[in-house]
Amino acid sequence: MATGVDTKAEGVSSRLRNLRIGAHLWNADAAQKYLGRSVDQAMITMSWAKDGEDFSNLSEFRSAASSLGDGAAIYVDVGFNRQNDDSMKSLGSDPIVLQWADAIGESGRTVYVAVAPEMNGFNGWRRMEHKADHISDPRTFTDAFARVAQAFADRGVTNVKWVFAPTSDGQKISDFYPFDVNIDVIDLRGGRGDNYSSYGQHHMEDDRTFDAQFSNAYGVAKVLALRSGAPEKIWITDICQRDCANAMHAAADSLGNYGAVETINFPSMGTFDYKARRALRSLFSGISTEPDRAVNVRARLVDQNGLAIQGWGVWPEGSAIGMDTNGAGIFYLNDVEPGDQRYSVRNINSGGAFQKITLTIPSADRADPEVTPWIDIGDVIVRK
Question: Which architecture characterizes domain 295-381 according to CATH?
Fold first, then answer.
């Protein structure tokens, strides 16, 4: 199939090309391949202080601040993994949050910061094993946001823009709006739990589906911006997961009614299968790609002595979700595009720094077009 203009996608694509696009920092380099264009901002979505452990990825932030192009923005989440009334009370004085304030100030770049994003969700930042965790008193969040903003100001950090980032379908958004903080952006995030009407886990075949899930949150966001004197600047994050093609068609068809939407963020792009990434490229560039060539891969993680490494995680570039090695050091990758693909590996028990690896994924003949072939690529050596 020759490449060329996909006329069916052209109308949708033309509406999407004017939007700013954000992707997870790990995926910023790959976005050109996935979307046919570079990202406008890199997201760092694992900046959490979790039960005394440092999952804040400050090193990733510092690397991005020094290496991203001048035109690319940085968008950071700052908060706790388990969000509830008690954890909000320490937000603003937590040492990791203060380290972030210093790092952002030292970067010299404009950095967008979302404090305790998805704070109005019922299940504590989608931590399904902690369903009882949620913020029941919105004032604990608004007070926490004000303390964080004041902590940044007290440390002389002036290069920050504040983002209010509620889930689009949770507790009442307006109850959580921090009127004591000068908000620069409202980022509406797609809900992904069993308490939400999920963008990501449901098909969105037409405009009506998108409007039913998004129009109310969008209307509330515009009213809040007007009441607070904030810029009428709205972002959408996590609008879709694996059903991204359907979701983006529906969204694009509706975007004419949502003129304040400036940016769509794809923090989980690395979890999209190859078909979804190909569909996104068609939508954002209007160019159809070659037929589906994706393969499933099995590999073994070993140390310098050839011994299997178990209990390590392997993360696709652009994903916060990885797969673990089993007792034999084996891990599996699904729907991978042939060619050189970048991954990160790390001991999931002790943490430590990520190691970057490149896997060369071979192509395979497809005896059955509907069946994705399996390939064993052998041993992958890392430093243990």
Answer: Sandwich (2.60)
CATH number of this structure's domain 4-288:
3.20.20.80
Give the list of residues 6+ apart from residue 364 with CB closer than 8 angstroms, or none: 295, 373, 375
Tokens standing for residue 329: 């050091």
Around 30, how many Cα atoms within 13 Å sit in the side-chain half-sphere? 28
> Any idea where the domains of the chain sit in the sequence?
4-288, 295-381
pLDDT in tens, 71-107: 778 898 887 766 788 888 888 777 878 888 999 999 8
Q: Residue 7, Cβ neighbours under 10 Å: how many?
A: 9
- Dump the DSSP string for 283-348: HHHSEE-PSP--EEEEEEEE-TTS-B--SEEEEETT-S--EE--TTSEEEEEEEPSEEEEEEEEET
Rounded to the nearest 5 percent, the helix, strand and coil shares of the chain are: 30, 30, 40
